[in-house]
Structure formats: C-alpha cells, structure tokens
Specification:
- By secondary structure, this protein is of the alpha+beta class.
- Helices cover 24% and strands 14% of the residues.
- The chain has helices at 28-42, 67-70, 187-191, 195-201, 241-253, 270-274, 285-296, 309-320, 386-390, 404-409, 416-423, 427-438; strands at 10-11, 61-62, 96-101, 125-126, 135-146, 152-163, 175-180, 218-221, 226-229, 300-301, 331-332, 345-346, 354-356, 374-376.
- The protein has a two-stranded parallel ribbon. Strands 2-4 form a two-stranded antiparallel sheet.
- The longest helix has 15 residues, at 28-42.
Amino acid sequence: MDSHLGGATTRLDASQNSFGLPAPQLTNAERRAFEVGDSFFTQNWVIAPASTDARDGLGPTFNAQACSSCHIRDGRGKPALPTVDGVLPEVSRLGLLVRLSLPERDPVTGAQLADPTYGSQLQDRAILGVEPEGALSVTYRLIEGTYGDGTPYELRAPEYSIENLAFGALHQRVTIGPRLAPQIIGMGLLEAIPEASLLANADPDDADGDGISGRPNWVWDAASEQRVIGRFGWKANVASIGAQVTGAFIGDIGITSDAQPNENCPGAQTACAAAQNGGSPEIPANRLLPVVLYARTLSVPAMRDIEDPDVRAGSEAFDDLGCASCHTRRHRTGPSNIATLADQVIHPYTDLLLHEMGEGLADGQGNFEASGSEWRTPPLWGIGLIEAVNGERFLLHDGRARTLEEAILWHGGEAEAAREAFRLSPAEVRQRLVAFLEAQ
C-alpha cells in the first residue's frame, strides 16, 4: 500500500482542515490564485445592489449563499432532516440538492429536459420579494437485516416529496433526484486521468463475464461543443471542473457567469425575472478562474495506519470481496498545465464509470446516458476523515447511510455479489475491511 494517495499532491494531515489544504509544490502564482479562489468559495454572496459589488447578485432563488455552505470545510453536505408528523423541519440542512428532470432528452446535448415550471433544480430559498420554489420533505423507513453470523443491522430507506410548491404542481412525469454535496479533494487529479485509461477499464457488455459492466457516461461539453466522458457528479454527468463550478454557481447560488449567463428563472416565475442582478456576468472570468483552480488543486490527505495488521488484512479483504472491481485502486495522470497534477500515480479507488446499483439505490432519474439505477463509482480517498472534517458522517448520494457498513449493505445490482460476500463474512473480516476504509 502507498500512503501517498494523491501522489505529489498528498499532505500528511488528518485534522478538521484536512480537505481544505492546497497541494504542495504549487507555484507562487498558483498559490496566490488558490487563495483568491478560496475567498470566493468560502464567503457569502449578498443581494444586489450592495457595496460589496464583487460578491453581489445572490439569487433571486438559491439553495446556499456560498460554495462552502454545502461543501462544509471542503467536505460533504448534510442530508435533509426527517419530517415529523407531517411538519417540515424549521432548519433545513444545507448540501442536499434536489434535481428535477423529465424522461425526454434535448436532441442536441442529450441532457434530460427540466421541469417546465421549476427548472432542473429545486430552489428552496429566495431573496426578499421572491418566493422560494418549495421545500424537500423526507421520511425514513427502517429495513432490518442480519449478517451471516446472525448479527442484526438496520438501514434507513428515505422517501422524498416536495412540499409548499409556489407555482403549482410539478410536471406529472418529473423525477426527483436528491444529491448530497461530496467532498471535493483530488478533483484536479481525476480530471487529469487520460480518457484512454478510463475507456480501458470499461466493459459495457461484461465481456469477461465477471458481472461488472462499467461504462462511461458520454455527456455534452458546452466549452468544446462535443460529447466527452463525464467524470464528476454522482452520475458522472459533468465533464470538467470548470463546468462543475459554473453549474454550481448558477444552480446553487444563482450567480451568472460567461458560461451560464442567464438567471435561473423559469417562465412562470415573474418576480424572479424582474429582480435586480449583480451585473452581467455576476462572477467574471478573473474571479471565476481562481475558484476553478482552487477546486483543481486541493490536496489529498495521506492514508494512515498502513502498517496496522487490521488495515493490511482489510486491504486484502477489499480485493477478495470484490470491492476493487469498481473502486479501482490505481491510476496515473497525464499532462496538466499545473505541474504538480501531471504524471502522478494516484490511488482514488474509483474507475469513474457508471455501474448498475440495483433498485434499492435507484431514484428513476436518468442523466445523459446514465439510467435511474446507474451511479458513478465514488472515490474513496478521504472517506475515513469525513467525520473529522464534518463532525458527522452520512454516506451515499443522499446521505442515507450513517456508517460504512450501511453504505456497503445498500450496494446492489453489479455490486450485489460483493455486498453479499461482505454480509456473509465473519465479523473479524468485516471489521478489518472497515479499518482499511477508515484509514483512507
């Protein structure tokens, strides 16, 4: 095992700030840009007009006031609080977004069409004089099960609905897709993995007969006006960090950019369309690009306890149980205009491909070529530090899993054999696997 999960970008830090540190070996110019990007990532945007004209233009509708509102200390967001006796919680949990889409796809881009009244993402907050679109309601149904040795476990199955809709009903064919904001470490390294390397790991027809049929999600890249492999997002539905950042600015905070110049105001929302903006664009390129660099160059925390016997045995179990079939251990990055990202051997534990994960995790929402039950293999680096960074740990795309064991037990579809191998393993094997994951 190599403790340097992020190659030269690795830092030996396991503190609350371990997800927020710049990669070592940045040039002076890159480090200055990183600090500027950090500022625009962290500080709140305000309603226009304001004396703080570099950060005005919030909304008109939005989910958060800053990137860091959802990516807490560059880590994960928090899932929605459960509805109690039909009453929505007074305090919403930031970081759980709700995607809205129809089955039909745009003939040019291949993207799923948005709800005609509410757009592609539910906005649960708004500036003064504009109505929020609605609020997410969640209840949990408990599912009981047992390991092979008779030890009981309990899973939370969320059931979602949208309440207090301000502009009438959702489209009758709309699908609702909750998405928890993930930690953002190592994104520049994932972006630098050559496309050929990702395609080499794909096996869409399961030609080798191992039950694993990962495939890329081909998505529309507006910058190059062509289809490319998606790498980011829970369904590998975003092509680049630049697209991820500009999409989050407009979708989450209501901030326009050159790439996303239109305010997020569907036709029925007249007050939204009439609200004053913070300029056009609200975040110009000289402020946006440092945020993109910031997201590209966050360091990866080093693996810990690699000489611990349980961790080493857990690493073997990771392979033996079949986890590494999708959570690919090793990649090498290609060229990059940021030297410290180029030609690095990294260990993100992902193939960045789509896998069918079964009905238990399915939400019915497609995204480009991803079906409602397909998900990108999420990277595992840093997973053992989520609680240290965020103060709590909620896993999977909507935060339903409260422990690593629960996250594993939700795996189905292509991962069903690996899940069952874990469930039926002796307690000591399960504990060693968890020790290995905690060391990441």
